[in-house]
Give the backbone structure.
Amino acid sequence: MKSIYLDIMEKSLSAYSHERISDYLDRVKRHGLTEHGFPRLGANMGILIAYGRCQELKDVFIEIMDICLDEMPRKIAANDFSVREVCCLLILLEGKNVVSVEKLEVWKKKIASFDPWRLYSMVVNDKRDFFGNWALFAAVSEYMRGVCCGIDTSEFVDWQLPSQIANLDSNHMYQDDPPFANHMVYDIMPRLLMTFLLSAGYSGRYAKRIEQALDHTVDLTLKMQSVTGELAFGGRSNQFLHNTAMLISYFELEAARLAKKGDTEKAGELKAAAALATKNLLFDLQLTPISHIKNRYDVSTEIGCEKYGYFDKYMITIASNIYMGAMFADEGITASELSNKESGYIISTSEHFHKTFLSAGGYMIELDTRADFHYDANGLGRVHKKDCPSSICLSTPFSPHPNYVIEGENPSAMSICCFCEKDGKTLVGAEHYAEYTLLSGESDNQSARAVFDVQLSDDILIKEEYSVTENGVHMTLSGAENIGLMLPVFEFDGSVYTKIALTKNTVTVYYRGSRCIYCFDGELSSDFTYYYNRNGRYRVYKSTSKRMSITLEKE
């Protein structure tokens, strides 16, 4: 897999034309170092050059590194992230004959002289109660600075770590924005950093506590992975390709860690999960033009991106994230069958992440029951089928006022959810006032089932029943009058239009060699409203049906 991970790094770097790199270099020369995308670009160039790739970039790589190692100690420019990446590069360059021995020694002396207490953006102090994941990035960067330069950095590392362990919830998932607006990306990335820290040799004061936390979350993380190989939806930085690279590295490092402990069975499952995520990432990277996000809009539109989620920073982050897996992947582990992608199960996170997942027969659904409406919505926000495009049904819900760019405006929050007509108003299960209570859940080898109460108002209570089998996803409503289902139908990914076929009791969507079929027994509204998420444009219809099934299949 290591060669494939280097291929992914090279593909990520290939998205930067020589002109784009030159423009980026010129901007930094004019304005100085302002963020971590620039040293990240340089570090990944150097890594690929060290492996005999991208040799034509050697001169510009050296120029970038010279600038970064001069600028980083003078400017707090997200060094929390980039020191680790630069140190990993410098460690790799030893004996590689990429730069002269003298040049490498100059770079190492510069980085050895950095003062950690002034270098990083988030240094733990007594002025605040909460320190987010940047503090963990800083700890890992400082540990790698010690490895790279042969110096003792344990004082700073162990100063930072208690604040990060304190952010773990009852399932040992990482809370980056407590108490309830937590983000799935910012759970996995800190746990990847923790396992990276152990992989790199950390055995300090908090090593045992970190290992206990990692042991506790392995099964949950495997089951939260989509049947398509992707990270769960939810919160900031969602639907970017670097998240899949991050997930790959997490699975690789955890596989290697557990194999060393003798748990070859779990290591095999983790290796298979990494392979599934790799398949997903390789599919996205072969699409043209290349993009850093899971839609096909021109990257200049920034559709799907937060302000910080721009191409120059997040495209190369794919390479940074996958390199952690390349560093420590154990090629001797045999991937096992991912039985949890076929056998039925239902799991829920803690209330801090407010998610429930059901999976069986190659299908998986994900519900959010207390959404952060800056990014998401309540209700059924994801329906995936193994080997089918993830956006053909729904991969992430619709925020009413998203903190990221969309093509148009969303009239409200939206998902696949119930609605009720009362006094001339439509109350929708995707909205903030919808209160979800999981009443029961059960699973066996062939199916997973869950029942929720959805309180839409003081006097409107709807029961939602979900069943997932190899025959599809089935949803049933009961409990109130004048109820039905809201149905988002995928229309446009930013480049390609789907084909949508409507009959009295079915909607069929054709996209990239697959089809998604919605079957219901009520009336479908004759009109629809456009909604937009990070993946593209959807039509939202109403159906008076109290029962619906969703099946996805290859054409």
User: Anything to note?
Assistant: The domain at 2-340 is CATH 1.50.10.10 (Glycosyltransferase). The chain has a mean pLDDT of 96.
